Each structure stands twice: as C-alpha cells, then as structure tokens.
Inverse folding.
C-alpha cells in the first residue's frame, strides 16, 4: 500500500483516535448531541490538525528539543484561533452550539499527540496525510456517535426526521449519560467484532511498527515527559 | 458403624434462608400496595405490573442465555426488580415505557455489572430515573389517574405542598391521592414493611433513620410546622423508598454504623431535593446517589477484625 494512503487508512481504521486510541474523549462525549455537531467539531479539528502537522513537521529541525511542547502549543493555538474566528463568521449557529469546545481544540490531546508522535519525526507531506487520516477518523467517530444519539434521543439525523411518528424519543441519549451509553455500546461492538480497539489488546500488538501504539505508558514520549518534570 | 461422617471446611453453621425465599418474602410484602394500586387506579395499573415483571424476567433470561451464563430467573430477584419498578410508575403510563425500563434495569444496571449482588445501584430505581429523564412528560403525568369513581385533575400531594396548599392527611394515609401505582397508600406499604420486619427480611434501622432524618430536616427547614412535616412524610415515595428500596441488600451498607450514616445521608439528600430541588420529589435520586456512596461508607466504618487493633503501647 502506498505510504500516503496507508496514513489515511491508519487514522481512520487501524489507529482511530476515538475508538482505538481513546484520545480526545472530552469533546467527543460533550459535543456529539447531534450528527451535525459531530461533523462540525470533527472537520474543524481536522483543519487544525492538518495545518498544525504541516507547520510543525516543517519546523521540526528548528524547534529545540527542550521547548518543543510550548512551541507545538503556540502553533496549534494559532490555527485554533483562525478556525474559531472563521467559524464565528461563517457558521454562527454551529459555532454557538459547539461553544467552548472550539477554543478547547488547543488542548485536544489528539492534536498534541500527533504533533509529538508523528509530525516531529516525519516530513511535512507525510504529516499532512497523517493529519487528514487522524482528522477523518475523528470526524467519522463523532458523526457515528452523534448519529446514534440523535436518532435515539430526538428521532432525527442531521435534523431530518427518520423515525415513524409513533416513535417516542428517549431524550436521555442527547443528555450527558447517553454519550457514555453510546460510546460504551460501540466499543463493546468493536470488541465483539474483533476490530482494533484499546480495550481488547489488539491495538497494542498491531501498533508496534507505527508511531503511536495507543499504549501511552510504554511510549517514548511519555518517558521523556516524565523525565522533564523531574 | 454405618454412620456417614462428613468432613467439610467452614462455615459449619448454615441458615435456611436462600435468595429465593428472601425475594419471595419481598414480593409478598409488596402485594398489599400492589392490590391497593390496582384497585384504585384500575386495569392499566395491573397491566403495567404484569408487563414490567415479564419484561424483567424475560430480559434476564435472554441475556443469560445469550451470554451462556447460568440462568438465574428462578431466584426471584428479577421479579422483585420488576415489581418495584412497576409500583414506581404513574398508573396511566403506556405499557412499553416500564417494559423498556425493565430491560434497562436488568441488562444495563444489573447484568452488565455481573448480575445479582454486583450492581452498584438499585436497578429498579436507576431504571426509573432513566425513564424520568427520557420521558418526563409521561412520567410526571398523573392527571388521568382515576380514583375510585371520581377523576382527579392534576397535581400530586407533593406538588400541592410545594405550591403552599394544604393536603388532607387522612387521604394521604389511606392513599386516595394521585401518585405512582405503589406509593400512594401509606397503610398498605406499612403492612408490607411490618411483614418484612417480622420475617427479618429487613432491619428497621435504615428506614427509620431515613424517615426520621427527613422529618427533622423538613421540620427545621420547612418552618417548624408539624402538619406540613407529616404530610411530607406520607406524600410521595418516601415510605415506599425507605422500606423497599433503601434496604436493598446489595446497595446498602453491611455495618450498623454504616447503615446509620447511610440513613442520615439519604434523609438529608431527600429533604434537600424536596425543599430546594427543581422537582417536588427527590426520593429516587437520593437513593441512587447514596447507593454510589455505599462503598465509601463501608470503607470508613469497617469494623476492627477480631485480634487486630487494640491499644498500641
């Protein structure tokens, strides 16, 4: 498989940031009250992820190792500010329903994780594809969770009513507990189907060759971070 | 020497009590309240009761069959869960809502955590709160409930108390008020409670401390009004919750000290929710929140093992 395509396949399926690495769960659980919110959040994160990956990969030889985290945050924060302003200007309704979670993309661990684990070690073009893959994986996961919650909790998908009129929406699914039910249900399904997942050990085995194994404790980045703290 | 000697490890003293006959006693204890509810509210109440119990038992059977676990429907715990859930339903509710709640109680709250004895919350109450959040309209609709030959419109006694109206205490005790199927009649509930206490199925400690704390709390913060306090105790699900739900073995503390603490927490939470919460009733939420605190309470009140501790010199 072509190494660029491989990056995208990796982000969407093999190391899906939500379902396999279980990263960035805070926005995942919070904004997926509807499919459209999930799509909006996913795409804005993808935009930031791709841009930040390219810039960080381009700057990777200039950034001194000691200040690499602050440098990465500055890059990510700049792009998030741009996305934040663009969304406020062009999609104000989506912007207001996502609220605080747009500025919070700065501290989304998927973005920082990819910068650390991939962009700091690879060239800009490969990093761009990695960003696209991871971003699409995140978007697909959010849309999936959002769709389930919207269908069960409101009887609609992307705002279109899909259930028969006799269906009574189970509104707990668009409230906070529903996010946990749906994510847990989808993860259980993954394990049942033996798909890659953080909770059945498959990610650990398969991930050895790639940059991020999903196993943060044994990750080189983790060891370095804890050393720095000392 | 034809005598057979058995060698076995401890415990050597055994009791006749089994899960099955305990649960059977709880079912018997709920019969007065169920009969009263059906008599007062009519056919739909009976339908809700039967359908919820069937849904609970069936979902337990299907789950255990699919997961290839031993089938435990004969121990009666699913029947008890179903009855408690049904008695917590408004009488005119469409039958599919409590059935959905029954499936949620058994599959999500009980079986996913490992079955009987492993659940961290009372399954029936967790399901009730699930339904309350999901179908607020149906779950708070007591308006169509017919009492005897008359139809009463609108508010439950708790809502009336909240609005500052007087309620008839005698009607509260007998149960001629709108409310959920099982919570209305204090007399019927107390008959069941006395039966359980006489049969030593429950100890009166948790319910009495719970109700006592609510009484003191409402008396102090509700304006030192005896009638108001008594009405608050008899109205809503407090009596039902205190005797039948707060005493659930799995989700209440084992130690005496722990049970005292648990009862007080329940009382304070219920009083707080009732006086200052968004809804006039708070028993269900108080009990499931306190259920979550039980492991902590037990850790804090762990008794010293024989031979351990004592004065250190």
């Amino acid at each position: 498989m072509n190494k660029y395509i491989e990056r995208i396949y990796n982000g969407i399926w093999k190391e899906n940031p939500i379902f396999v690495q279980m990263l960035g769960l805070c926005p995942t659980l919070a904004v997926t009250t509807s499919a459209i919110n999930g799509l909006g959040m996913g795409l804005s994160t993808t935009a930031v992820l791709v841009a930040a990956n390219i810039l960080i990969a381009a700057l990777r030889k200039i950034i001194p190792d000691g200040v690499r985290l602050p440098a990465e945050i500055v890059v990510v924060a700049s792009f998030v500010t741009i996305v934040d302003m663009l969304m406020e200007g062009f999609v104000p309704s989506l912007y207001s329903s996502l609220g605080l979670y747009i500025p919070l993309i700065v501290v989304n661990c998927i973005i920082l994780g990819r910068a650390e684990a991939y962009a700091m070690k690879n060239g800009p073009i490969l990093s761009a594809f990695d960003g696209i893959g991871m971003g699409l994986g995140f978007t697909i996961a959010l849309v999936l969770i959002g769709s389930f919650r919207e269908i069960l909790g409101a009887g609609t998908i992307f705002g279109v009513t899909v259930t028969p009129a006799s269906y009574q929406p189970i509104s707990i699914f668009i409230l906070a507990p529903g996010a946990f039910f749906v994510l847990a249900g989808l993860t259980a399904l993954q394990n049942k189907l033996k798909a890659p997942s953080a909770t059945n050990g498959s990610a650990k085995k398969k991930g050895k060759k790639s940059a991020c194994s999903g196993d943060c404790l044994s990750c080189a980045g983790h060891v370095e971070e804890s050393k720095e703290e000392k | 020497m034809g005598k057979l000697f058995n060698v076995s490890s401890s415990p050597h003293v055994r009791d006749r009590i089994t899960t099955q006959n305990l649960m059977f006693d709880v079912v018997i204890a709920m019969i007065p309240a169920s009969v009263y509810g059906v008599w007062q509210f009519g056919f739909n109440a009976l339908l809700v009761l039967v359908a919820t119990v069937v849904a609970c038992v069936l979902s337990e059977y299907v789950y255990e069959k699919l997961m290839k676990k031993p089938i435990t429907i004969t121990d009666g715990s699913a029947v008890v869960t179903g009855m408690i859930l049904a008695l917590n339903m408004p009488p005119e509710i469409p039958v599919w809502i409590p059935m959905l709640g029954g499936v949620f109680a058994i599959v999500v709250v009980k079986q996913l955590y490992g079955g009987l004895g492993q659940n961290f919350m009372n399954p029936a109450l967790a399901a009730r709160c699930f339904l309350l959040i999901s179908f607020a309209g149906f779950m708070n609709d007591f308006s169509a409930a017919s009492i005897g030959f008359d139809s009463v419109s609108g508010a439950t006694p708790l809502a009336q108390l909240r609005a500052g109206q007087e309620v008839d205490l005698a009607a509260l005790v007998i149960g001629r008020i709108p409310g959920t199927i099982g919570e209305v009649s204090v007399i019927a509930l107390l008959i069941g409670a006395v039966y359980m206490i006489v049969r030593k199925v429950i100890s009166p400690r948790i319910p009495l401390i719970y109700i006592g704390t609510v009484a003191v709390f409402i008396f102090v913060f509700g304006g030192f009004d005896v009638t108001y306090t008594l009405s608050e105790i008899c109205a809503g699900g407090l009596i039902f919750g205190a005797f039948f739900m707060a005493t659930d073995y799995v989700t209440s503390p084992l130690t005496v000290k722990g049970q005292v603490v648990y009862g007080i927490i329940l009382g304070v939470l219920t009083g707080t929710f009732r006086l200052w919460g968004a809804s006039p009733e708070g028993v269900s939420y108080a009990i499931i929140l306190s259920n979550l605190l039980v492991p902590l309470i037990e850790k804090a009140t762990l008794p010293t093992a024989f031979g351990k501790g004592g004065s250190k010199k």
DSSP finds 14 helices and two strands in chain B.
